[in-house]
């Protein structure tokens, strides 16, 4: 399911439409050792078509080099919004799991 996230950078409000496939591609790109370029590519693909020129002007230095701080901050905001409806994960301590198993076997 696609989700629209609006982010204002300077005086411009950008609309980014992100879906699972796009977000997964971004995460896969990060696991290959980079963060800025996969993030920039996702933003570039997700930004509203009519805003693309302004996006490039704002999020790169004019020589096709992404502005890392802006790019990563925007992706952080998108990640926060895009993942907000996911269930929260909590690691259960190993000792609690072992105690529960021992209690379950001793009571049978």
UniProtKB/TrEMBL annotation:
Compositional bias ranges of the Low complexity kind: 92-108
Region annotated Disordered, chain positions: 89-108
Protein name from the UniProt record: Phage tail assembly chaperone
UniProt source species: Marinomonas maritima
